[in-house]
Structure formats: C-alpha cells, structure tokens
Amino acid sequence: MPRLSSRTRIKGDAELQQATGAGVSAPDAPLVALTDARVHFGAVRALDGVSLTISPGECLGLIGHNGAGKSTAVNVINGGLTPTGGQVRYLLADGRDGSGLADAQACGIRSVFQELSLCPNLTVLESLRVIHRDLTGIGWRKVAQGRIAKALAEIFPGHQIEPGMTVGELTLAERQMVEIAAGFSDGRMPARLVILDEPTSSLDAAIARQLLSHINTFCAKGGAVIFISHMLGEVFDVATRIDVMKDGRIIASKPTSEFTQQGLIDAMGHVAAEKSAARAPGSAKTELGEEILKTPEGLSARKGEIVGLAGLAGHGQAEALARFYMSRSGKLGQVKQPEVAFVAGDRGRDGVMPIWSILRNLTLTHLPSLTNRGLVDRDGERRLAADWRSRIGIRTDNMDNLILSLSGGNQQKVLFARALASSAPIVVMDDPMRGVDVGTKQEAYQLIRNEAAGGRSFLWYSTETEEVCQCDRVFVFRNGRISAELTGDNINEENILAASFEMQGVGT
C-alpha cells in the first residue's frame, strides 16, 4: 500500500472550520483535530500542548515509552477525557464539525484498549451488546451474531471463536481478537476511526499479521486508524505517519518513510537500541548446572538456563507453565522459601491487586522475608520498592499511588520487579513484556541474563519471536504438545514457524 503524506497540522479554529465546514467534506479533511490539548492531574502534566490531526485513509503510528502520554491522548481523542486546555474537534458524517463525547461517538470513533474490558461471565454476543447500544428488542442476538461473526471472519480467518462462547472460556489472545473485531464491526454508526492500543500484545505472529493486513485494507477503503505499539516493525508495516510522544508532548511527527527504525528509537529518547543488545543464543554464558526441573510434557531446564516456550497462541504453553507453577507453590514452606516466582501476562486477571498501592503490589511476595514477629519492616519494604523502581524505571512520583494509576506497561514492570526481587531459583514468565516499551525490554533482557549467570533459571513463554530468540533452549508447542526442541543456531523464526504448523521435529 502506498504511503500517504501527512496533513499539515491545523493551528486554529478558523482553519478547522474551513476544512470541516457545515455541509462540506473535503476528501482530506481531518476526522479529528487536536489543537494545543492539555490534560493536567494536579502537578502532573499528562498532556502538555498536543496538536495533531488524522484524516481518512491515514494510519497514525503513535509511539513513545510507557507513561509518555499516549493513553491520555487517545482518551481525549475518543471523548472519554475532557482536556484541561486546548480543544478537540470532530468531522461528523454530515460534514458538520463538533466536540464532546456524543460527537466523538457520532464521528464513528472506536477504541480497543490494551487493558481488555470484556466481562468474563458474558458471552461474546452479550459483550458486543454492551458496546453497541442499538442492539435491543426482539432479534438482537441474530443481529449481534451477524456483526461479530462477520468481523471475526474478515480480520482473523480460520479463528475458532463461537459467538455463543463465554468470555471466561476464551484464551487471552481470543479475548483480544474479540475486542478488535468489535472495534471494526458493523453498527448503527460505521467505524471511521479505530484506535488500537497495543492490539497485538497477546497475539502470536501469524494472527498479528492477519490484523495488520486488515488495517491496511481498512485504511485503503477510507477508514483511519491510530496504532499504538511498542513493536516497531509492526508500526512500520501499517503506519502512514508516525508521531513520537515524550513527557506529554509530540516531539517528532513525519511520514513513516522519513523514519528509520534506529532513528525512531533515537527520537524516543532512550539510550538502548533495539538490536544492539540482542545476543546469539548461548553466547556469554557460563557452563550450565544440573537439571532442576522436568515436567510431564517434556519441559526441562538446568540451573542458570533460560528456556523459551514458543508456538501459536493457545496451543498449551500457558497451561504448561501454570501446571508447573502450581506444583511448586502454595505450601507453607514454599511461601517462606519460594521455589518459583511468576510474572503474569494477563495482569488484570493474574497479576495486579487493583485496589492496592504500587508499593504493596511490588512487595507482595516478599512480605515473609520483611516480617519479624508478625510486624512488617516498613522501612525495608520502601527500600526494596525504591530500588526496583529505579532499576526497572517505573514511572511514578509516589509509590503509594494506586497500581491502576500507572500505564499498562508500567504495571507490567511492577509485576516483573516483584518476581525478580524474590529469592526463588526459578522464574516462570507468561508473556512478561506485554505492553512494555522497547528500551525497557532491552534492560529487562539484560536483567534476565545477569540473573541466569548467577544461577537462576527461567521458563519464558512469549508470542514475540525476538524474545524467544534470547533463550538458550526453546520448546515449540503445537496442539498442546511439544513439537520441537531447538538449541543454539537452530533457534530462529523459520524453525519456530515450521514447528508451529507441523507436528514434526526440527533438527537441534
């Protein structure tokens, strides 16, 4: 698909009126225009003077480190958050311009957030009804089934999701697929602008490619997308323009063709380069120790080894990790001297305590070591939290704030710190980098290597090939079984994909 040139930013209301005057709908008129938008939460400047537009046919890649202001910006764009200053205007379907939540909805803006919002006790059909308020009266189920089935088939051909399935029965990847399909589905007001916040964070490479293809098709037909992702390769695949955010501001904005990947990383302002920290499997490693775990599925790991679990999402990797973790935790002795620590990928369900502070969430598993005669060493707890806040870059000015005050990526950092700060000799990681920015990923990779060099072992499931290739050994799953065991130079995308689609071994 040819790259589209970016539209000149609209600086004032008069210029916006010229572009979106009543009854006039120029082909390149912006669907949404933010002008000097500001959002302040007390002393915190979540948005600090953001101006941007997005027009039909554009896919805007919005990138930046966790806490840069991306989520705040999209909440202003979709009308969910009223800016403290500046303005946001919408081009309505009849050519008039408007503002406010009602006009945002009338403009056809849909949002799919990284923090999945489906209710686990509802069916897929019922979940769509929550979003599409026109699904009422006799026969609404048939209409809803047609809408969601059509969207799923168009975006994810070959999926196994039935409209009558309960959300709680779905895997994390399937839930994400349902939310994405709902965002693009037919409705009383067709989707004109779809905001996708880390939409592939729980999807394997094959399903992610299906979504990227659909985005290109949707924009080619005149739709618009705001695409937020830390997976820079995907941003380059779909974005026509890239805006880089830092500290609540847009610090760079230009057509995708004018960026290089390294230039984009430099613009984000992080010293870590995406590829520079990558290593060949097995490099810079001391000799591994004795075997310390073996599971009925055939998973095994030695002391100091980083073991990856790969394959298409939903083929038994997460279940294998859960069975192993439960077999090594829960007893009284294992609480005081943990044998295994866990980093959840589905943090909303398995990770964060939503009504607790950042500090309490981080130190939760360390309370036995911080307790003496039933009393918690509060000073020691704060030192531990402050140390890991600094080491892993948790963006907050107060560790006593609620965990939900953090962005999704920063919540994930808290869970990661919780596990690595423990004394457990084995760490189980279920897609732990979900929603974490590229710079923090490199720092986390280095932390994992350092811990492994010290004798700690890792079981690491990831939907990202780059992460799997950080491992010393990789088990590829297919249909709930291990289809291949890869080591050394055989750990590469080609062999992982071959083993994911065929029940056969790949040379090791």
From TrEMBL:
InterPro entries: AAA+_ATPase (IPR003593), ABC_carbohydrate_import_ATPase (IPR050107), ABC_transporter-like_ATP-bd (IPR003439), ABC_transporter-like_CS (IPR017871), P-loop_NTPase (IPR027417). It comes from the Bacteria. Residues 32-272, 278-504 form the ABC transporter domain. Gene3D superfamilies: P-loop containing nucleotide triphosphate hydrolases. Coiled coil: none annotated. Pfam families: ABC_tran. One of its GO terms (molecular function) is ATP binding. Keywords: ATP-binding, Nucleotide-binding, Repeat, Sugar transport, Transport. The keyword Translocase does not apply. Residues 1-22 are annotated as: Disordered. Belongs to the ABC transporter superfamily. This is Sugar ABC transporter ATP-binding protein. It comes from Roseibium limicola.
